[in-house]
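call fold target=Guanine deaminase
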Amino acid sequence: MTLYRAAVMDTPRDPLVEGPDALRADADAGLLVRDGVVAARGPFAAVAAAHPEEEVVDLRAGVLLPGFVDTHVHYPQVRIIGGLGMPLLDWLTSCALPEEARLADAAHARAVAREFVDGLVRAGTTTALVFGSHFPGATDAVFAAAEAVGLRMTAGLVVGDRFLPEPLLTTPDAALAHGRALLEKWHGRGRLRYAVTPRFSLSTSDAMLEACAELLAAREDVWFTSHLNENPTEIEEVRRLFPGAGHYLDSYHQHGLVTARSVLAHNVHPTAHELEVLAGTGAAVAHCPTSNCSLGSGLFPLAAHLDAGVRVALGSDVGAGSGFCLLKEGLQAYFVQRLLGPHGVDLGPAALLHLATRAGALALGLSDQVGDLAVGKQFDAVWVRPQPGTTLDVVLRHGADAPDALAKIFTLGTPSDIAVVWVAGRTVSGPSAPVPPPLPLEAA
Ligand SMILES: O=c1[nH]c(=O)c2nc[nH]c2[nH]1
Ligand SMILES: [Zn+2]
């Protein structure tokens, strides 16, 4: 057992519903961790007195937060982060899809999988819903990389049978067979789960979406993820391709793909009826603010989602998004709501923390395990500890109170300020993280 002593902040209650007081901030907390689980929590003096024999790890030089939960991120796109200046469909054609085709090469895919998982944990992400690759071998590689590091990951084979470059195309039968094999191998293994992942309606025929439905029905605890209402040109094209669908969401819903185990990314341009269906089914939306800004997709209507009762969490959407760190996504979400003026939601620091942690856990059906640091939860945590003398270090030393410190962390924090990351009590990034094996590049 280990007794961590730290300033701890988390949001077991929802600040978007209950207001800023929902931030739980303990200036000098003791968290006793046994077998990767928070076994006791309270004022440090009280927990230490009750467990005098435990080794104490003193983290008071920084702030301890729950591990971040990224609800939308693309594994094959790590190396193309930063492709600026294009709207969605141009960016896909000239930037993302050519790079994704390179994952046909197994050694390349393994290297990218390692870079991807490493990028996530260095940024403090301990749980992620991941778009895999169009290639079964490459998707297998990202599961293996996540398992090796210990990342809590839900992912799946990305499938499509139109719009894509030829090497990325598949058929409904092949998608089903490959998806089933990956699901049987990885779903429920350790912290890994499978998500049925059609790329987006634009790249999937009704027959492909029917194959997705068949795979989703294979096991009751399998997840579903895809894209929705990201860009006006995309939406228009989906309307043309699915004349029988009432709207974009309907192209999935008609096949039974929209449920409480569905996470749809973006939804920047929803109709009122789509919000109603999302709320009614319990499906969640992954809000990807840096991606939406970078591709010029639009300003996310968070208020309309919340008013309709739709669950929303954050996604980095790497590689259209500008990096893995959910602190940056939180800040960008805040900026976007400010730009919406009277139509924006007032996102205080507690709301940003919730969106980056517990909201993601809720969206992924994992809130009984992760998302906050209550007793009984897994010790998935990040220690924000800026290097002495950095601007974040300076402003934290002159902060007023806990919400103020949290606002500063979201404003200035980067992966280099995240000193240690734990998943289930084990260090996955930081000084004592296991050194990963060498890249298998010689196999190329
Ligand atoms: O932001 C996005 N990134 C993608 O890779 C993608 N594919 C379909 N739609 C998409 N949107
Ligand atoms: Zn995406």
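return ok
The chain has two domains: 2-66+372-429, 68-324. The pocket of zinc ion (ligand 2) is lined by residues 72, 74, 227, 265, 317 (CB under 6 Å).
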